[in-house]
Design goal:
The complex is a heterodimer of chains A (154) and B (731).
Chain A (H helix, E strand, L loop, with lengths): L1 E7 L2 E7 L5 H8 L18 E4 L2 E4 L13 E2 L8 H12 L9 H14 L5 H8 L9 H14 L2
Antiparallel strand pairs in A: 1-2, 3-4, 3-5
Helix pairs in contact in A: 2-3, 2-5, 3-4
Chain B lengths: L1 E2 L13 E7 L5 E7 H10 L13 E3 L5 E5 L8 H13 L6 E5 L21 H28 L7 E3 L2 E3 L5 E3 H8 L28 H5 L15 E6 L7 E6 L1 H4 L4 E8 L4 E7 L2 H9 L2 E5 L8 H12 L4 E6 L13 E8 L11 E7 L2 E6 L4 H12 L6 E5 L15 H13 L4 E4 L2 H6 L7 E9 L5 E10 L9 H4 E2 L2 E2 H4 L11 E7 L15 H18 L4 H8 L5 H13 L11 E9 L2 E12 L2 E12 L6 H15 L11 E2 L2 E2 L19 E5 L14 H16 L12
Parallel strand pairs in B: 5-6, 10-20, 18-19, 22-25, 28-31
Antiparallel strand pairs in B: 1-2, 2-3, 3-4, 4-5, 7-8, 8-9, 10-13, 11-14, 12-13, 15-25, 16-21, 17-18, 17-20, 21-22, 23-24, 26-27, 27-28, 29-30
Chain lengths: 154, 731
């Protein structure tokens, strides 16, 4: 067991964990931040996507010992970011969610896309969102909501 | 404070439902609806005991004006958590902006009015609860009006209601919250008048979901997210072959993992397993990974997909149990070989893989237990837990949790997840525990859509229409050995295996369909749209083939072949013809495929524009026309159809199959078995609803069956190949 210092959504915190523990389970079980979801544990579904040092990252595949000083942003904090807020609002106004379980990861990935490419093409969207599974297959509305959010960004 | 105003009060009271009204402890009005049959059942089981009704209700008007409506269903994406409150709030004239929906716990009062158990299945929630929720809303409104009329000493007829307020003459008004306590003391009206459909304010309007925001900011707690104080996490090592048992195991390494608290063998629905209990998920998983288990495979079947398909193909060449025998049995003989088509289809096992892995949390405290689970079958899951714990169902409080998908996987007749969790909770007595199935447990754990082989011979008349149809379906029964068997198996035919074929909406004069249901140790389960997943594929690809032989437009051909009474399907094909005019002007390397279905009452027709990219079907555009009767929430319906056709793509894509080799499932996780990603699903789906005032039917499952045949029908136009084995591997 080791002690790690983390910055999550701008807040510094200390956790004691086995070095191999994935960031996902530190967030969920230690910090009780359950907005980040467990879907597969092998980085194949994207439900656990967080921003690690501003890069969308599968938190199930990053051991806590490799997080280092990079700040972590999760779905609970992304709404404080202007782009994050616009994306969340577009998701709500466009009624994107069904079961909703994958949407934390979808939103985190979409926010990262729009920060990098504010006016994404369909191909950009497919490329960026291509690894996020939605079993309800809300993909059509995800595509549309990204364009709605894009339209609202300056 | 509670009283049952109708209990035995009026011998003329012969409605199937009555209401219980009480003033809530916090003030306000609670309205509950109880069905006679449960009251009677209670009387029968506890003859002398007074009726004790649970403290649950359908409507609660809080003093602050919030109207809380209980939803008697699981919400797992389908939008019922918004639709049922819309129906009730509309009749009640509630202020929609103040409506809050809650998922009701397990209780007889929340049973499906038709099935008699609390459940979600067969897309029946709207079909069965539409009138129930309207009447609840109308009765609540009538009582509020009664309270206002009494307060103002005027006839009720002089009052009108709007958006949570009763208005009287001379500008008088009172909010529902102000009237709630007085209303609770008013006798429940026996006669109520429901609105005429043209007076609906909410029903029929595009209404956003009530659960969006918490699903978009991470605050919504799914079952997997719940944290009960002192809770442990349990993972179970399941047998590598269905039905195998633990011979011996070494837990030393597992116990050495920090925060692992207990390791023990437990009985499973099939075989036995080893449970690892830890403070958190990660140590539980580390502990499970370190278990050394020797399995006893004696007596297990070791099913193998290759061998099963071979056996199924042989069976398909023989007549099974008769499902339909219409017309002349020998009609095929009169048709020359040149006008016959013989086709054999193969469908693999499919896993539901809801995004939220399966889980259940149980706390057993003395002679009471509390359960938190996303269940489609609360009634039987509660019963199963009570049985394992040695309690009565009434001693098991069962909370319905929002679920991250399900698609049938949370409607399990043997309640195996609940039993597994209960076996662990029984050992931990006093300590709450959450059982989690990892994705590997889920992909490898069975309860699949069964594999099937179909063999069909079609004889075509000189007019191009089929005159003789002989069809054999081979596949495991979903319900054999379950309490559903007496209801769903007739003449040895499981109706869930033949639905969508036996009841075809096409007029085929000589039609013979039979089914074989070989047994296997692979657990199988209904999968969103059930029998239609394979039967619609067979029917719609063959009918398309017939249309091409007849050199007819595929929509025209279907319209011509429809039975005269197939009104809903006809209406969707007609609307599709109008909305999919684009199909005549797609790029040269694209093609359009058509399919239609009637599934659980709702009819669907679709057109899919497809090309081949990187040897895979690329679905550019889908137009859907549907007829579900009255469309309660057109926004949810649009969403369900857009997503549902995407879900239906699962069985086409190359990783859309579960296979077994010598008893072991070959896929472990989303790397081996994978639902559609964004690029696999249709890029655009436009949805068109046939206007109707008929009784509404469901929209959860009907979108699923049409897409796979439509895509394959388009592919034939591009490649000239018929695809009768799923998933598609090479194009």
């Amino acid at each position: 067991m080791e002690t790690y210092e983390l910055t999550v959504n701008g807040r510094r915190t200390e956790v004691i964990a086995d070095p191999g523990t994935p960031l996902l389970w530190v967030l969920r079980d230690e910090l009780k931040m359950t907005g980040t979801k467990y879907g597969c544990g092998i980085g194949a579904c994207g439900a656990c996507t967080v921003h690690l040092g501003a890069i969308p990252t599968r938190s199930c595949a990053v051991p806590i010992s490799l997080v280092g000083s990079r700040p972590v942003v999760t779905i609970e904090g992304v709404g404080r970011d202007p782009v994050g807020r616009v994306v969340q609002d577009a998701w709500v106004s466009h009624d994107v969610v069904q079961c909703g379980y994958c949407q934390s990861g979808q939103i985190m990935t979409a926010v990262a896309l729009l920060k990098a490419i504010p006016k994404p093409t369909d191909a950009d969207v497919e490329q960026s969102m291509g690894g996020n599974l939605c079993r309800c297959a809300t993909y059509v509305r995800i595509r549309e909501a990204i364009q709605i959010a894009s339209g609202q960004l300056k | 404070m509670r009283r049952n105003l109708q209990d035995g009060a009026d011998p003329g009271w012969n409605r199937r439902a009555f209401l219980k009204v009480s003033a809530a402890a916090t003030g306000g009005l609670l309205v509950s609806l109880y069905l006679d049959r449960f009251a009677l059942a209670q009387e029968a089981t506890s003859a002398a005991a007074p009726k004790v009704y649970p403290p649950d209700a359908f409507v609660h008007i809080r003093p602050d004006g919030t109207t809380v409506i209980q939803v008697n269903r699981l919400e797992f994406g389908q939008g019922i958590h918004t639709a049922l409150p819309m129906i009730l709030a509309d009749e009640m004239d509630a202020d929609w902006s103040r409506v809050v929906a809650e998922l009701a716990p397990a209780d007889a009062v929340y049973a499906d009015p038709v099935f008699g158990i609390q459940m979600v299945g067969q897309s029946s929630s709207i079909t069965d609860s539409f009138t129930q929720y309207r009447e609840l809303g109308a009765r609540t409104r009538a009582m509020l009006v009664g309270a206002a009329a009494a307060r103002w000493k005027i006839p009720e007829g002089d009052c009108r209601t709007e958006s949570g307020v009763v208005h009287g003459p001379n500008g008088r008004s009172a909010t529902y919250a102000e009237l709630a306590e007085a209303a609770a003391l008013i006798p429940v009206p026996k006669k109520i008048r429901l609105k005429s459909p043209n007076a609906f304010r909410l029903v029929g309007t595009k209404t956003r979901r009530l659960d969006s925001r918490p699903k978009c900011d991470g605050s919504l707690k799914f079952g997997l997210d719940l944290d009960v104080p002192g809770m442990k996490i349990a993972l179970v090592a399941h047998p590598p072959v269905f039905g195998a048992r633990v011979k011996r195991f070494d837990a030393a390494a597992a116990r050495a993992v920090e925060a692992v608290r207990d390791v023990f063998e437990i009985p499973l629905a099939r075989g036995t397993g080893v449970a690892v209990v830890a403070d958190r998920f990660w140590p539980a998983k580390q502990g499970r990974d370190r278990l050394r288990i020797e399995w006893d495979l004696a007596g297990t079947e070791r099913p193998d997909s290759g061998r099963l398909f071979a056996a199924y193909r042989d069976l398909a060449r023989t007549t099974g149990n008769i499902a339909v025998a219409r017309g002349e049995a020998n009609a095929m003989h009169a048709i020359p070989e040149s006008r016959r088509i013989a086709a054999e289809y193969e469908f693999p096992f499919l896993a539901h893989t809801p995004m939220e892995p399966l889980n259940t949390t149980i706390r057993l405290d003395g002679d009471r237990a509390e359960v938190w689970a996303g269940s489609q079958f609360q009634t039987s899951d509660q019963l199963a837990i009570a049985e394992v714990l040695g309690l009565k169902p009434a001693q098991v409080a069962f909370h319905t949790e929002m679920a991250g998908g399900g698609f049938g996987r949370r409607a399990v007749p043997d309640s195996h997840i609940q039993r597994e969790a209960a076996a662990i909770a029984k050992r931990l007595r006093g300590v709450p525990v959450k059982l989690i199935w990892t994705r590997e447990d889920d992909v490898q754990g069975g309860y699949y859509r069964p594999m099937h082989v179909h063999r069909v011979e079609v004889g075509v008349g000189s007019d191009g229409l089929p005159t003789a149809w002989r069809h054999v379906i081979v596949g495991q029964s979903l319900v054999a050995g379950t309490p559903f068997a007496p209801m769903l198996i007739k003449n040895g035919v499981d109706s869930t295996a033949v639905e969508g074929a036996a009841d075809t909406h096409y007029a085929i004069p000589n039609f013979h369909l039979s089914a074989h249901h070989p047994a296997s140790s692979v657990p199988v389960l209904w999968f969103r749209s059930v029998g239609h997943t394979h039967n619609t594929f067979v029917m719609e690809t063959l009918v398309d083939e017939l249309a091409m032989r007849a050199a007819m437009d595929p929509i025209e051909y279907r319209l011509k072949l429809l039975k005269p009474d197939a009104k809903r399907v006809r209406s969707t094909l007609t609307l599709l013809q109008e909305k999919a005019g684009w199909r005549r002007s797609v790029p040269r390397e694209h093609a359009v495929g058509i399919a239609c279905v009637q599934c659980f009452g709702t009819a669907v027709a679709c057109a899919a524009e497809v090309s081949v990219e990187e040897k895979r079907p690329r679905i550019h555009r889908v137009t859907v026309a549907l007829n579900c009767g009255l469309a309660v929430n057109p926004l949810t319906i649009e969403s369900q159809f857009q997503g549902g056709v995407g879900f239906g793509v699962t069985q086409l894509i190359s990783k859309g199959a579960i296979t077994l080799k010598d008893g072991r499932v070959e896929q472990r996780n989303f790397d081996g078995y994978c639902p559609p990603y964004m690029k696999d699903a249709p890029a655009a789906v436009d949805v068109h609803i046939v206007r109707s005032d008929e009784k509404p039917t469901g929209c959860g499952e009907p979108p699923v069956p049409v897409i796979a045949p439509a895509v394959v029908n388009a592919l034939f136009r591009l490649t000239g190949k018929r695809y009768r084995t799923l998933p598609l591997t090479t194009l």
